[in-house]
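For the sake of transparency, this paper describes our internal protein records without simplification. The record that follows is passed on verbatim for readers who wish to inspect the format:
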Amino acid sequence: MSRFARSTLIVAVFFGLEKVLGFVRQVIIARQFGLSPELDAFNAANNLPDLLFALISGGALAIAFIPVMTETLQKQDRQAAWDLFSRIANLVFLVTTGVGIVMIALAGPLVSHVITPGFSAGQQQLVANIMRLDLIATILFSLSGLVIAGLQANQHFLLPAIAPSMYDLGMLFGVIILAPEAGYQLGPLTLPSFNLGIYGLVYGSIIGAALFLLVQLPGLVRYKFRWTPRIDLHHPGVRKVLVLMGPRVLTVLFIQLIFIATDNIASWLAPGAVSALTYGWLFMQVPETLIGTAIGTVLLPTISEQVAHEQKELFRQSLNRAMRVILALTLPAAVLVAVGLRPIVGILGFDAAGTDLVVWAARGYMVGLIGQSLVEVASRAFYAQQNALVPLATSLFTTLTFVVLAIGLGSALGAGGIALANSLAYSGEAILLWYLLNRRFSGVVETRSTLVRAIPVALSCGLLAFGLLRVPLPVSDIFLGVLSLGLGGLLAVPFVLPEIRLLVKM
């Protein structure tokens, strides 16, 4: 197994663990709060803190920073790379803290006019209070995101992959210990409870953010990190990162505006629509993270090295192989999950109407699983070339397309229509990005042999799952749902073995 395959496997396994913990967390939250106004407020309050994190250190800085740090490692040495890292980290902390203070001061107007104008005054006040507390976690995440980028540039993926699970453990502490009125029963033990309600989730988020950062610090020690107490905007590496980061910040802004627009539009629908879209997104994110994000995360340092050494043919081959693997895995996954999802959603404990709402939101998002996964790789291909303008232009296209479609489809189909609008917009972005890559690297989208096998097997898997769910077996609905997904997945394996072997050899 190649280094790339091992790293992808590590990332996928720990991302999978995080999804399991995250799912457990969401089930407990769902059973405790239901599709309530309080939970809608909690989910909506995360939008601007998430935007701040994504703009400054999460999605923006990490992807802009890794190619430059990789180039520094290849052409200079590790100490020079850590010197660059320190300067960027110092800048990130100061900017994040400053913007966070401004957001805390303006939380009320932002909530009432931008985030959830359709909520009642009391619910808007709750959103503002939660958002102010969330910004503490955002400052911690801002440093964590840069640490992740630094470790990944050194081809270290284990601790960054573990970190999200640490966040889930903090959140689980919040929902099990801090939030409920009465303690949970674990055998003969009754766990203590602080009866903080929805605020328990917020404090759990802060604890999780601290764990997210702390678990990665041993990686800095291993790679002999030394802190430099400087910024120096004239430093060549800092300037190169900032040049890439400018368009990347706008790109992530457009991406995050989709989430803000989603909650804005959904806030005018029936109560529970915001949370239903949140749960539907999480169901789509499981296969998208395990496939698209895992491959894209590991691929970026590799293709950045290829660009630094001007290995154009290897670069083209890496992208083509990644595309074929993603198509082979996401096509069956999208159909399987869309068909077999309902029994799994039943775990959340909603009534029939709430379950339907989540199911159709998830199905709407599943339409875009392939596009979302392909964008993960295609956008990184441009950043590896230190080209941030193309992803900027396509993300603007995606945001505008989503808003137009979401208003129309949301009014006609409700929450499911908003999710479908998201999928159509991202699928369009994927097509555009890969078209532009193929113009420069001819043959990068040659995937005919993969599609000839993946499309029929995806339909066959869906039919198998559909049939199994209608067989009157003496088992629970949840077990039957898991069984249909498992058997459908096994059916697909022989047909996608060439791509699995391709991944192992990448």
Q: What stands out?
A: The radius of gyration is 22 Å. The chain is about 80% helix and 0% strand. The mean pLDDT is 87.
